[in-house]
Design a protein that fits this description.
Low-confidence stretches: 54-63, 127-137
Radius of gyration: 28 Å
Mean pLDDT: 86
Helix content: 40-55%
Largest sheet: 8 strands, mixed, barrel
Shape: globular
Number of helices: 17
Distance between the termini: 44 Å
Strand order of the largest sheet: 14-15-17-18-19-20-21-22
Bound molecules: ligand C2E, calcium ion
Length: 561
């Protein structure tokens, strides 16, 4: 699917549910079509809406009635993500999203679903429920601040009156609220949020609007001339909390996305612009405000498309494993290989990992891919064993994201065993983490893998912040020194200093008992230098690029460089 195609689908969604209708049935039909258009990408299996009113002023027929708005053919999970609104009568309207079987939404996706859900509820409120849902509150936190439905209403008003171009739209997420929720009781944390919101609203003019999306996410419509002052304020909000048992100051910054609203046709389009800008700000971990642009929108759509495409690609087995030989520095004999993934698109194009791995890392799907690679590698090793070919150890990259998985080791062992491959032929490459907390988990992981006879290497060594500290704490067998530290290369122009650094790292690693692999060795000069510096193994274009499986099989026959 093309980039614009997915963007179009979202816009189509917004258009459809905002289309004027004459009956409730017509609206439900539109909502169904709208959901149908995006359900597959979002892994939505089923959507229901249930309205209830305990002290009923509502008419009997809509009391506690659950209506299915969308139902896919696939099987679905039983637990739903719910979005509930208070209605004017003290009742609720609950929208439930059920994911398709096996899928679980990340926080970001949940926000997005909430956004879509809010629009659906908004449409219901507007078109159908008339006097009933009209009273559904558009306010959050006991009437303190509008919620999205309120915000959408406000946007609708500004659009209708032709005032929208006077404004800048904002989408921002407050920093550190997670921390507040962690250290304070629920009630106190709510108190802090309430104070924060009071501060937010203080400088807001009558014809401006700030609303709470949920959690610590906010949106705002601010007049252009006040935008800079608003950014300044939300970048540093000071909250003084005080009650009988606690007195504490909090400072809150924010990740901020903003958009000019020229030419926006409807509230949905505005939401797309500001949330795209916010996502870009978040991805860049930007301290500055990120303004919406076409490029940002395209990039977000590309990311979404990669993630959606990825799941299809796995099912269709579009990923190919390439093998890059590692060579013994002294004997120049093959001594192993690293498995590196490539994505063969149905149109025949071969996509390098850097175009999709960082996206899958953020999304968490990388974990699926790493196991896919392990499975292919084990199948390959099994074939080598069966066909009596020479055997060499193969290393498989495992992303940092696996650290969160307490069953990682047993899952790895299960895959290797399922192919009846002896553990000694597998190596796991882990990258060092920036977070010292992770070292303890990593170090446990490494110990367990080693106890299973699986070797472990630390990849990209020297690029992290605390590499040396880590050397002390973990007991891997192998260090792979990052390409950027290799002297006489593309990255380096001060060779004298590079050599001092490189030789010191190798010296230290060897003295501590690690085997050292130099990666990215491209020239004879580099090879000779690595050899004399004491590196045990070389992986680089000087000997071989990553090879498709058949070519690697040919290399096995000779093995000598
Ligand atoms: P990496 O793990 O550091 O892999 C080494 C990269 O350096 C590979 O890039 C390899 O092709 C490249 N390389 C090797 N020798 C040379 C050389 O002499 N010169 C230059 N310029 N490059 C060289 P590739 O295959 O594009 O992979 C990039 C990164 O993508 C990998 O870096 C790794 O972080 C990630 N990756 C690849 N496959 C997987 C996978 O299955 N799982 C995970 N989690 N990450 C993977
Ligand atoms: Ca690697
Ligand atoms: Ca590496």
């Amino acid at each position: 699917m093309s980039e614009s195609h997915l963007g179009d689908k979202l816009l189509r969604f917004f258009e459809l549910i905002q289309e004027p209708v004459r009956s409730k049935e017509e609206l439900v039909e539109n909502v169904r079509t709208a959901l149908d258009g995006i359900a597959e990408q979002k892994n939505i299996g089923k959507v229901t809406i249930c309205r209830s009113a305990p002290e009923s002023k509502l008419r009997a027929q809509i009391e506690n009635q659950t209506e299915v708005l969308y139902q896919s053919d696939s099987s679905i999970e039983e637990t739903a993500t719910e979005l509930s609104f208070r209605t004017g009568e003290g009742g609720t309207a609950v929208l439930s999203y059920f994911p398709v079987k096996g899928c679980c939404w990340e926080e970001e996706e949940q926000h997005e679903l909430m956004l879509l859900g809010n629009m659906i509820l908004w449409a219901f409120r507007l078109e159908i429920m008339g006097e009933l849902l009209q009273r559904m509150t558009t306010m959050d936190l006991a009437g303190e601040i509008p919620n999205v439905a309120g915000f959408m209403g406000y946007l609708g008003g500004a659009l209708a009156q032709g005032r929208i171009e006077n404004y800048i739209g904002f989408y921002f997420n407050t920093h550190n609220f997670k921390y507040v929720n962690k250290v304070l009781s629920h009630q106190k944390a709510d108190g802090v949020m309430w104070l924060y919101i009071r501060q937010l609203l203080q400088g807001i003019h009558e014809d401006e609007c700030v609303a709470r999306l949920g959690g610590d996410n906010f949106v705002a419509l601010i007049r252009k001339e006040n935008a800079d002052a608003f950014i300044y304020r939300i970048s540093d909000v000071n909250v003084k909390y005080k009650d009988a048992t606690l007195e504490k100051n909090f400072n809150f910054g924010a990740t901020i996305g903003a958009a000019e609203l020229n030419g926006a046709q409807n509230p949905g389009e505005i939401m797309v612009r500001i949330s795209s800008a916010y996502q870009a700000a978040r991805q860049k971990e930007s301290k500055e405000v990120v303004y919406y642009s076409e490029d940002i929108h395209k990039e977000i759509m590309r990311r979404k498309e990669v993630i959606a495409d990825f799941h299809r690609g796995v099912v269709k087995q579009e990923f190919e494993v390439y093998y890059q030989p590692k060579v013994n520095t002294q004997s120049r004999h093959l001594c192993g290989a690293e498995a590196l993934i490539r994505w063969r698109k149905p149109d025949g194009g071969l996509i390098p990992p850097m175009e999709f791995i960082p996206i899958l890392e953020k999304d968490g799907s990388i974990c699926i891919l790493d196991f896919y690679v392990l499975d292919k590698v084990c199948a390959f090793l099994h074939r080598c064993i069966r066909e009596n070919r020479p055997l060499y150890k193969i290393s498989v990259n495992f992303s940092k994201r696996h650290i969160e998985n307490p069953h990682l080791v047993s899952e790895i062992v299960a895959v290797v065993d399922s192919h009846k491959v002896p553990h000694e032929w597998i190596e796991v490459e882990l990258t060092e983490s920036e977070d010292a907390k992770d070292y303890i988990v990593m170090s446990n992981l490494i110990d367990k893998l080693k106890a299973e006879g699986i070797s472990v290497s630390v990849d990209d060594f020297g690029t992290g912040y605390s590499s040396l500290n880590m050397l002390k704490m973990i007991k891997t067998d192998i260090l792979k020194i990052d390409q950027s530290l290799i002297p006489f290369g593309r990255y380096n122009n001060d060779n004298q200093k590079d050599c001092i650094m490189f030789e010191s790292i190798v010296g230290l690693a060897k003295a501590l008992g690690f085997q050292v692999v130099a990666e990215g060795v491209e020239t004879l000069r580099q090879y000779e230098y690595m050899r004399d510096a004491g590196c045990d193994m070389i992986q680089g274009y000087y000997f071989d690029k990553p090879l498709p499986m058949d070519e690697y099989l040919n290399r096995l026959l000779f093995g000598q460089y």
